[in-house]
Amino acid sequence: MSKLSREYLESLIDDTQYQQVGSTSTVCVLTLRSGFVVVGHSACLNAADFDAETGRAIARENAVSKLWELEGYHVKATQYAEQMLSGG
User: Fold this and answer.
1) pLDDT tens across 22-79, in order?
2) Concatenated DSSP letters for the chain?
3) How far is CA 53 from the centre of its chain?
4) In angstroms, what CA-CA distances link 74 with 11, 42, 54, 77?
């Protein structure tokens, strides 16, 4: 694989759970099909401004952003290992 896509990343996700923490924060836990867990969060400054739907959306995007990084690393590490095995 040389290019990651949002569709591919979404296909890795088996379960999504949210937890509101206090009156200003949301945590999103993505459990991948492999069993690995990626966590994202969001927070606002003022409890009066807190919106649960917005908090969930931002926390999920934060978790998916981490997944991009992890999968990007995985692809590059795999390419490097294959290159080393082939004498490159």
Assistant:
1) 999 999 999 999 999 999 999 999 999 999 999 999 999 999 999 999 999 999 999 9
2) -----HHHHHHHEEEEEEEEETTTEEEEEEEETTS-EEEEEEE-S-GGG--HHHHHHHHHHHHHHHHHHHHHHHHHHHHHHHHHHTT-
3) 18
4) 16, 26, 30, 5
